[in-house]
């Protein structure tokens, strides 16, 4: 060992207790911090090297515990937990606030015409497809054809759903029609996420014992993880797409907003951003990222393999994705 920092720090797990909502919230406030997307490639590489070397028992001279945890959270914000690959910038959870505040703000502003609905729903679902693929569970890669098919089916299904809901909005009061983008996004998440992660539903995701030893792949675990992610994503959209429409409906009646209608979009984007700063980490924290499931709830053949290879294991763990 080199350096003075103890090697007893478990940086494979988050710094805070993940069995509590508060601990998970603290963890995700760091992971989803929008400032992380401003980190240079050199900073990301330095964080990766620091974390990986520490995991191997090598400590950079002068490294403090706070610096180690800072490096871990920079690393976690940019690299996939299963594959270790660097995620594209817009696919990282730290990009959720700036990207979603822009897209959602425009969806809530430009919702009155069909071309606008189609365009912004397509932009939103294309962004979601990148996020869903980047934050998938497991380490198996999709082929280009599989990825293209998943993207087309996910975005098409989501946009068609949005258009169907828009047609219903014509029969609703003006204030209610403002909520159509939210219902469209909620329905689209139920389509986009399973489509972009369809390989997991077909072949399963890795499940491990408490020490991280891989025990097999489970479709049941994949379904559980995807359901949790869908609920979290819809939860993220609730404040950002439910609160600003009410405020904007009141503001647009004011003389000031009538005189300067150009402020509509910036104000809407700002309101959405304020909501997302808190909604993103808090909704990511609804469920532990490292989820667990009783062995008895897994597929029968996998139960038998685990009983044979690890008879004392009663609970398995898996990365549910984000």
From TrEMBL:
One of its GO terms (cellular component) is mitochondrial inner membrane. It catalyses: L-serine(in) = L-serine(out). Keywords: Amino-acid transport, Membrane, Mitochondrion, Transmembrane, Transmembrane helix, Transport. The keyword Translocase does not apply. It comes from the Eukaryota. The chain crosses the membrane at residues 175-195, 226-247, 267-287. InterPro entries: Mtc. It is found in: Mitochondrion membrane. Mitochondrial serine transporter that mediates transport of serine into mitochondria, an important step of the one-carbon metabolism pathway. Mitochondrial serine is converted to glycine and formate, which then exits to the cytosol where it is used to generate the charged folates that serve as one-carbon donors. This is Sidoreflexin. It comes from Oncorhynchus tshawytscha (Chinook salmon).
